[in-house]
Amino acid sequence: MALQAAAFWILAAVAVVSAFSVVAARNPVRSVMWLICAFFTSAGLFVLIGAEFLAMLLVVVYVGAVAVLFLFVVMMLDVDFVELNQGFLQYMPFGALVSLILLTELVLVGSTFVFADPDAAGRAAFSAAGPTNAEAIGAVLYDQYIYYFQAAGIVLLIAMIGAIVLTLRHKPGVRRQDVGKQVARRPKDGVELIDVKPGSGI
Amino acid sequence: MGRLIAEHGPLLGVALSVAQIFAFVVVLLLSLAFLLLADRKIWAAVQMRKGPNVVGAFGLLQSFADFLKFVFKEIVVPAGADRTLFLLAPLLTFTLAFIGWAVVPVAPGWVIADLNVGILYLFAISSLGVYGIIIGGWASNSKYPFLGGLRSAAQMVSYEVSIGFVLITVLVLVGSLNLTDIVENQEGGLLNWHAFAPATIVVMFPMFVIFFISALAETNRPPFDLPEAESELVAGYQVEYSSTPYLLFMIGEYLNIVMMCALLTILFMGGWYAPHPALETVFIPPVFWFALKVCFFFFLFAMVKAIVPRYRYDQLMRLGWKIFLPTSLAAVMAVGAYVTYVGTG
Q1: Widest CA span in chain B
Q2: DSSP code of A198?
Q3: Does pLDDT of A162 surpass 90?
Q4: What is the ipTM of this complex?
């Protein structure tokens, strides 16, 4: 238990520090690095409460895919810090308003949150004898809430198709490779053997 | 580790598991030294050369000589590079290559952490591998490494998708995310191995091939070594690296290759089980069969490197997204239907 508590405090401290560094870092690439660190320590916290499946999904989806795309975009950007800092005072009231709203929401949610008894049934559900994480989540997602889950999937699919349709451009004159055509091509389509007589040319 | 702590108390348990991990790492590194040599020897044999043959008998000590050479060279950090990230990148690659092995069962009970989500853990670790490359490419603050890093990131993310679907077919068939369970599901000879089981061979053998090819792309091995295509990008993301950081990159890369060989063994080739149950005698330990299969796959990796010419980048992307992804997606549905209506294989 002492080991777990130590692990929790270390992970939690690192998570908070790196989450702060995401907004404090001057270099956007470093900021993404801190974000990855925050994701990673949160995955560690999930492992500590016995939600190992969620922890792995967090790493696979957020660290392995989403953050890579962030990094991709941020590395391509040519960020000018002087220009970035110029409009700071002008936009500050608006930013402060947004963060105030977020803070109020968090406080509202936090004040109604009731801590469960740590030794009670909630924890027993994740005991070694019970269903594994994957089974428990699967039962909830695919049995209990199957329609909502499918609806969410369809919404995402439509968003994806929308993104593709918005960016798809058919440029005329671009030569594309057609593998079938290439494979079907035979020597007699492209090569012609000509018997040239001396002195006459083709 | 949890089991050891439970059996021997906190102090001794932790000490024992640290010793276990240390022993595993040493064995891995030593076998890697000889696998590296084998890679070069096979490559040389295909091209009718001798390969390294000066240091030690048959060049057996070549990898150790190379190791010393790399370690005693000067570390050059380019001016204008992001120093911290530049040195962090190879360390990251190196570390990630090792921690994946924690869940790999090499023989019954021979596994450092028998995680219930072992296969997801491995998938997560391998999806992190891209960071070493992309950070290294960016932090070098140089054109070619950056292009190499971007290429590599796009390539690895693309092939991860089809690897993920292939993993899903296996775990649906087994009904467990635990690697030990996956191996035990293939007990009883060649015809029970996932790649060859008669009931599912129509789907699973192609999945095995897809996994093998995707593993080549995921580890940036030829014919998919576009991130370091020397004819266009000098050496890709590794251009600015020298000495020990380069060594760390190289060890990490080769360890990832061996890891992919181990994964192929576990998922499709019956792990530590012999091709026929009669061969599982007391004289041949299960770890022998595991090592044999890993070496076989490593040989295949080396042969592919020696024989197949490099892909073009658009061909690589087409293969990943337009051929492997639909095929493996269809296979997931086929296996799911099989498990639902016929029963687990």
Answers
A1: 63
A2: T
A3: yes
A4: 0.74
